[in-house]
Every structure is written in C-alpha cells, then in structure tokens.
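New to this. Please check both lines:
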Amino acid sequence: MEKITLTPKADEKYLVLEADCITPDAFAGKTLDEIKEMKVWEGNTTWPLGKFFDIIGTVADKAEDQAIVINGNVPRVKYIGSRMTTGAILCKGDVDMYCGAWMKGGSIIVKGNVDHFAGIQMEGGQLIIEGNAGNYLGASYRGDWRGMKGGEIVVNGNAGCDLGEYMIGGTITIKGNVDINAGIHAGRAVGSKEPGGKIVIYGNSPGRVGGQLIRGNIYVLGKIDNMMPGFALKETKELDFEGKMLPFNVFTGDRAEAGKGTLYVKA
C-alpha cells in the first residue's frame, strides 16, 4: 500500500477540528498539494488541513491501496476515518469523537484512546482501539434507532456506557470493563432482519447489561453487579469459547420487551 503520513504541528493551536476528510477515500487520486488544501472545520471557520499537519508520502491511485498514518496524539481532532469504505488508517496516539463513524470498510488502528461515538452506525470494516473507548461505541446516532450493522470493533482497554446501543449486527469485543447499558435496545430497529449482533465483555459491568435486548448475543466473562430483572435464567452449561470449554449461566430476555436475545454470564 502507498502511505501518507500526517504529523501534527506542535506550534499550531486550535480548539477542536472536524476532519472528516482524513480517509483513504478522500486522499486517493489526489496530489499532496491537493490533500494539504483539503478543508477542516474549527467551529464555523474552515482551514486547510496542511495548516495543522506536516503531510508527506505517496498517494495511491485507488482508495483500497491507500494507507494513512497519523504520527502523534490528536485528542481534539474529530471524524477521523468516518464514512471510509476501504484502505487503512493508523493513529499513533489518542483521537477525538466519531472515529470510524459510519465506516463501511477498511481498517482503523488506534494506538491510544478514542473519545465518544466511535464506530457509530458502522456497517463494515475493522476498528481496533488499543487504549480505552468513550461512551456510545458502535451505537446509533442521536435520535436514530439503528446502531452498528456490521464489521468488527475491538477495544483492548475499557469502554464507557451505552456501547452497542440499538446494535443490529457486527461484533464488539471489550477486553476490559464497561459502564452501564451495554447492548441496550440491541436488535430493536424497526423492520430490520439483522440478527442483532454480538458483544463480548471480558471484564465487569456495574449493570443494565442488555436492557430492552430484542435480538443478539452478549457474553460477559466478568461480573455484572446488578442484573436486569427482565432476564430469566434458562440453564448453566459449558460452551466452547475461543477454544476453551467454559461454564456460562444462560439468560434469555429481555422478557419485558418479549425479547429473544441471549445473555451469557460466566459462572
């Protein structure tokens, strides 16, 4: 793949940037000078991307052959990789909100943390976060009832509240702990024929896991402090989990919503 490297300019100060132009789809087929002139928003003002980043490398003719490396922390740059369909992005530090939002393909690796709304309404591709994730990971956009539909999200650290809200497909894996409302409203989208998705949580949750779960599967290998009352214990059985046989308590629900989802909690 051809690689473009964006290095943040330490002497350029800004409040928050909205940089949805940072995608392989937008970069491919352009010249370096054209990429430097792409517009980013700071409030109601636009600036050229090159004002805030030193930009070097080789531009690919096709988006699937384009890799982008962000060489540093950009904790106040939003929309990195949003709506991308192919190619690859590597962020070598923290990023702001909406990373990988609405993405349909390609891969994003974040070496640091991501803020809220990462991977919302994602349809395909892979988003790997080596640090922690904020709230509403893989969820719906505010006011919508359709969350993540496909693709894969992996978080090596912890995640905030409402991850997988209104999720209707795809997989979310959290290696650490999560906050409340994991998988809330999952499988609830009106008219959707998707199976509801899969959420795997290796750590703990304070509660409300699977609230109003209609379809889909949630696995919790840690502890849930407060179980939702709408779940009924069906059985305890051993399941093949990543090549190991582990005992799980199998709950069905949410019965308050006539849900057909399943919550597996390690026994």
Q: What stands out?
A: The chain has two helices and 17 strands. The chain has a mean pLDDT of 96. Residues 32-36 form the longest helix (5 residues).
